Amino acid sequence: MEMEIEKVDILIIGSGPAGYTAAIYAARANMKPLLYQGIQPGGQLTITTEVENYPGFPDGIQGPDMMVNFEKQAARMGADIRYGLATKVDFSGEIKKVWIDDEKIIEAKAVIISTGASAKWLGIPSEERLNGFGVSACAVCDGFFFKGKDVAIIGAGDTAAEEAHYLSKMCTTVHMIVRKDQMRASKVMQDRVLNTPNIIVHFNTETDEILGEKNVQAVRVKNTITNELQEIPVSAFFVAIGHKPNSDIFKPFITMDETGYIMTDPGTTKTNVEGVFAAGDVQDKNYRQAVTAAGSGCMAALDAERYLTSKGH
To answer: pLDDT tier at 138 (50, 70, 90 boundaries)?
Structure first.
């Protein structure tokens, strides 16, 4: 069966703040961008509740509402926004090929990758079974629901420390589970955690199982030195062990760091492949904010526009 082929000037892969902002700029520049939303339209912000740090919203805004606004604005400018997942790419030629849902091929003169990142999970069955019933990868989104309760958080980096501190303000006790005998977090974040009376840090400890039938009741942990098991009664289990950039399909062509974050030329969104640009969390492991993602989406659209102009398109 012949695959359907569609030709466009500019293809945007992904639909968080970076992808939608790139679409707004590219559409206004009359580049008629095509955007595929991917597996999670709106990206990580759709699992965030209150966004209070995005400029221009003095009263805050819900993450999902914000992404609806971004999408509407891109559509009003003339971006062609579709539901679909990029499953394979071929960036070997001047015309870039991207397979959508393994059933059609988009041929684009320029591509903007804004596929974002996803939270990492431990990979134990109880974690998946109780996801949404006390298991969460976003303390800032869901901590509110466990006001006055005991909770656990797993992780040892800045994010985990930050989220443990955030939870300590509303939860009775926060059990922080750290696999090694020390945290990876910066000194200032560690001090903040260790000086918060209702955060109990369990060093040399790993999660054995999350317990509960319909929702989280406890976490069973194992001491990595003595192998001793202990059950800690908690109402929620937060996973803060980092993020993984959604970049696997680009590996054969695009230069990345060891974690899979796409490398871009400093001060630009240019990748090692001419005509392919990357914006947002897929290339940013430092800031990972809605506003910085949107900013890099703008940069990607401008970089792509200059590239197409230089090629006489």
So the answer is: confident
> Do 126 and 205 fall within a single domain?
yes
Instruction: Note down the domain range covering 281.
Output: 4-118+243-310
Question: Looking at residues 52-75, what average pLDDT do you find?
Answer: 94
Active site annotation includes 142: yes
pTM of the model: 0.81
- Regarding whether 173 and 86 lie in a shared domain, the answer is no
Identify the residue whose tokens are 């990580």: 44
Annotated catalytic residue 90? no
Active site includes 141? yes
Query: What are the residues facing 199 on neighbouring strands?
Result: 174
Catalytic residue among 9, 65, 80, 138: 138
* Residues β-bridged to residue 207: 221
The DSSP annotation for 239-294 comes to E-S-EEES-GGGTTTS-B-TTSPBP--TTS-B-SSTTEEE-GGGS-SS---HHHHH
CATH code of the domain containing 11: 3.50.50.60
